[in-house]
Predict the structure.
Amino acid sequence: MPDTEKNQLRPATHYLATLMLMGIYGIQVCPFIDTLTPVQLATPLLIIVGFQFLLRSQVAPSMIAAAEYKQRVKRCFQVELGLFVLSGLLLTAYNSILYDFPIESGLKMILGFTTLGFFTATDLALQQERRLASILQEQDITLTPDSDYFPLVGKFTMFSAVSTLFMVGIFFLLINKDLDWLMQLQAGTTLEQAQHAILAEFAFVGLVLLGYMFNTIYSYSRNLNHFFSSENSVLAAATSGNLNASVTVSSNDEFGEMAHHTNTMIEKLCQRTMELQRTQDVTILGLASLAETRDNETGAHIIRTQHYVKALATELKNHSRFSDYLDEDTIDLLYKSAPLHDIGKVGIPDSILLKPGKLTDDEFRIMQTHAALGGRAIEVAEDRLGCSTGFLQFGREIATTHHEKWDGSGYPNGLKGDEIPISGRLMAVADVYDALISKRVYKPAIPHDKAMHIIRKGSGAHFDPEIVNALDRIEEEIKEIAARYGDEVIDEPAREPALS
């Protein structure tokens, strides 16, 4: 059912109930109304309640919409209750003018209309609160609760007190009329019959009032459920790391204040997280730059390899072997941690690290220790922190295992196949490819096609075959990265930062 039809169905149901109940109520509490024929009773009720419904359809929407968002629920209650009181006054005036009914008869009808109006206005105001929450959510509008809002305890106390007064008033009128009836009990009606009639009358009125109260409780519970569902879903999202969600502040009360504080908390948490991420990025860049100052490789190597790793990981994220591991957050951490792959070179002597020619066997064995040195350095940082953050974990894996080989012949630990972390396998392909196409003091650069041939030849021996297949599929993207961040393109003093 469309929302507009739902919004009209609830008031229409209330007005039909009013039409029926006021006829029964008038007969039960007022001896003057009891003297009217069914036509005399029903005609003015039908006209007045019908006029009230039409007037509501024309006036209420514009009056409610004219109020600011925070006041719309209150305005809705005032308009709805005012219309019922108006109908009670009109019916009182009609009966007084046409039938010369006394003022006490009119007051009884006004009490009846006001009682039904109070419960109806409460229910429709709660419906307005639900509708307002949907509007604010759709339009991405949030309210700021007033500092002096009317508290929920006050609302509950007032609702309970007014409901009790109305119930007491109506039962008082019933008892008063029934006492008059018993005093004038006609022959043929026994006291037992009168007792049953009075009890049935009380039961009917009690059930009607309880029905209205239960309906109000149900309507309010729907609003509570909507708020708590929204609050819990946002908190669950924040718990899982999504700090972009917010609770719609749609009420000017404690729940609105709770939603406001929740949003403020998440906003501050997001700011702190961004500050932490920036600190993390600066840390990685600083460590990578430290290694770079002692190496004869250019800073462009760091930039290219991290882009290669990201491109390969993105290509493989939907592959059955990698999909459980490579989500967007992991790919981002791999991209940011990739510059740490050679951090261990800070521990290699300059005579070996900066040697312009081929290394001797002994020198090469010392050079190979950079992988273990880098892993241990990051492990020390993790121990001192007392935890392993994502970027340190990936940085340690990459630094330690990017020289491991698929067939187990790599270093430092001789890991084989899936024993090698995916981060290390990705970096192995990226690092070797870039080393092949790059010019170094001890070797010339080789063309892309020859480098790809060497990589393919190492598939299943040096490299994970699936990662080599992924490299084949994104070959053009790899070439574009190599061209965009070539050694001659990157200006050493002001090159592009390695992290984003």
Q: What stands out?
A: Residues 490-500 have pLDDT under 50 and may be disordered. The domain at 294-494 is CATH 1.10.3210.10 (Hypothetical protein af1432). Residues 317 and 325 are 8 Å apart (CA to CA). The radius of gyration is 40 Å.
